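Justification of computing resources. Each target in the renewal requires a structure prediction run like the one illustrated here; the chain below, 342 residues long, is used simply to show the kind of job we budget for.
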Amino acid sequence: MKLALKVDVDTWRGTREGVPRLVELLRRENAGATFLFSLGPDHTGRAIRRVFRRGFMRKVSRTSVLEHYGLRTLLHGTLLPGPDIGRHCAPQMQAVRDAGFECGIHTWDHVRWQDGVARADEAWTRSEMQRACDRFDEVFGVRARAHGAAGWQMNVHALRSTQRLDFGYSSDTRGTHPFLPVYNGELIACPQIPTTLPTLDELIGWDGITADNVADRLLALTAVPPPASGHVYTLHAELEGQKLLPAFQRLIAGWRAQGYELLSIRDYCDGLELERLPHHELVFGEVPGRSGELALQGPAFLSPAAPPPEYRWTRDRAVISQHIRPDTAAAPAAPVSDPSHS
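Resulting structure tokens:
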């Protein structure tokens, strides 16, 4: 059974502190992983604007943001200038590659992308993605072949850019198995390798789950038979690479005991005929424990008329369950030229 590890690296601190710890652990455990880097400025402090987003305050109250991210990180982009991660942390990124791990693009500016891309136009979206690609080339000396959007936030222009930029795959969605995305009838020729499992910060604080027992809850999910293609788990350098490292160590041991092979996404894709993957609609909806709407794997394309799925985690299933709801998907919001000015 395959289980791919996708490491999202959001911040300057996560790159400098969390990433080396994860590399050390993964090498010691002989486990593969894909590291996706934020390559531009760290403006984490600007996430305070999410205070008015539904679900954001509930998430903050469940997880100690200050404990995990640190005061300095939470001031970057507000009272403190946002450090340029790619410029100042290139040695840490190159060390990941040199240790044998797959590296790819998470974003240019994490907060700017996560908060702005849903309403952004083509020029803004292409500019953000191109800046990340140029910096990746500058740091690693090669073109990026992997992309995983910050916060699972995408728009149609970003989807088209995954194809235009010739990524081998993208992991921008939540879902159950690899697929080729279709958005409003438009086929996108870049495979999506969705995250299939909940993240630790989505679980902690619900139903008595704490940092001490969250690994047990996640292992209970993966104990049931997985999808035929296996699982994809997203971890964060700021969480599993720091305060939640002990929980991640327990997960690695537990997954090995359950018979999983821990891989990079590139190795996870070996044996998949990517060009023959099923086509699924890409929809937007909520995932329990995370605020706002995310890019989700929807129904099979051209399947009999079906409403968009409602995604929720259940105790006895290790994948996202689709539950029929009577309403239809909301139309996408009109684009603006630069969401940072809205």
